[in-house]
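CORE FACILITY INTAKE
Project code: CF-77B
Contact: R.S. (postdoc)
Sample description: multi-component assembly, two entities in total
Requested service: structural model of the whole complex
Turnaround: standard
Below are the sequence entries exactly as provided by the requester. Do not edit them.
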Amino acid sequence: MRSARWIVALVLVALPQFAGEFYVNLISQIFIAAIFASSLNLLVGYAGLTSLGHASYLGVSAYLSAWLYLKLGIGHWLSAPIALAVTTVMAGFFGWIALRASGLGFLMITLALSQVLWGLAYRWSAVTNGDNGLSGLTRPQPFGLSLDSASAFYYFTLIVVAVAIGMMAKFIGSPFGAALKGTRDQPRRMSALGHDVRRVRWITFVYAGFWGAVSGLLYIYYHKYIHPTSLSLTNSAEALLGVIAGGSGTLVGPIIGAAIVVLLKNYVSAYVERWNMLLGFVFVAIVLFMPDGLVPGVRRLWARVTGRRKPTDAASNS
Amino acid sequence: MTAALEVTGLSKAFGGLPAANGISLNVEAGERRLIIGPNGAGKTTLFNLITGDLRPDAGSIRLFGEEVSRLPTHRRTQHGMARTYQIITLFARDTLLHNIVLSLLGRSRTRWDAFRPLERHRELFDRARAALERVGLEPLAQRPISEVSYGDKRRVEIAMALAQEPRLLLLDEPLAGLSREERVTVKKLLDTIPRETTVVMIEHDMDTALDMAERITLLHYGTVIVEGTRSEVVADPKTREVYLGH
């Protein structure tokens, strides 16, 4: 397991040396989608709160960063922390509203809030330039290094994704993460044990919003352009699809799921107009054969193939 | 000395149907109190009101002199209250040890640590193992809950509550569904609860429960009908009426 991890790391570091620009860019996009999906997974998989409004954090931080640069001429070194801070505060406010409910109510509130932002992005042309979107943006130059080439941006994104996934893994593995999973499985029992369920969920909501905002910054740096679709329901739903298809409540699942969505989007859309339909088929197939997602499903298959020596492995991995 | 638990005029109705109808009772610190009553008498409702799972329509609840009836459940737990459930409520996918750790975290500041790996908090696991040892389940520490017997789950329920070293312990039918031998084991376990812990227990199994209780409260239709020492309650004609019927 450990050696497999090293091989993956090595391949990722060496990738721009042998892969063409198209592929390097493709993997960069997967990285961005992976942060986005993983942050959503904190809510869906670990808090047991299904959100259909996660695009809010990606979209708002991207729009803010663009707007600060275009309208106020603020450089990246300042606009990035402002965008992250404002988006995180917004997540705090949204979480405060949405966490009055759980289950379906929570889902509907997150959806409604993000639809409001999507509508704003379309209609508030003075700020967002409406359907035309905001263009004419640049990538940051950390320590004077240009990120304009595909491979430079790839390495930048690789570092961010490594830090992001690492931080989220730490969060899940901590006592707080244990309490979080407890509130997912037995919220009433957790309250009786002295855990403040609502606050645990709120902190997680804010943390998920923060990493969603980070993915938003990478998103705008990559595309150098932003359009209201970044705030759309489709964007939230694609991430949710990735989380569920890959395996919610696992660290690797959402990364695999995000990769599938990005690959389908980029490859299939070149040949088939209705690529969304194919995404739907793939999703249905995964859910039919592996109801809890690809990663847990493949793990189970693997355990069956290699003999049933460690039947409790799956349980301790959650 | 202030009472461990002081309930005054507690009422709760579900859609016009009163489940608790002006319940008042006093439990002294260190006491063992048994709450009995026929099905639907409001025993579990009373527990849910005390813990904060339900909000009362009227009345007050004092824990060690402090008014808690407006506090959320988790804040009441911080006052030293712990409970077990009639219907087993455990973390089925996790190990016995992890279940106890979650209980210990509930009363520890460590629960807000979102950075250091859980496994590094050795002291939590040591205390959790000790809590399991106390109920005789230490050898099963690494087993998931879903793989142990019903009787063991009952003991984990109790271990989770005891691990917090509560000042007030609410036991909701701790013997329900246990075999005769298991009942003896759990009974012995309950006898080891130190006097610093006040115990309020709902139980139907009179043989076991009666000799543990010092005072007994009989509930019927959401009100206290009889209260007193063991012999007083047993001798009271109203007890016979409720239990032996018409």
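Facility notes:
- Chain B has nine helices and ten strands.
- The radius of gyration of chain B is 18 Å.
Invoice: internal transfer
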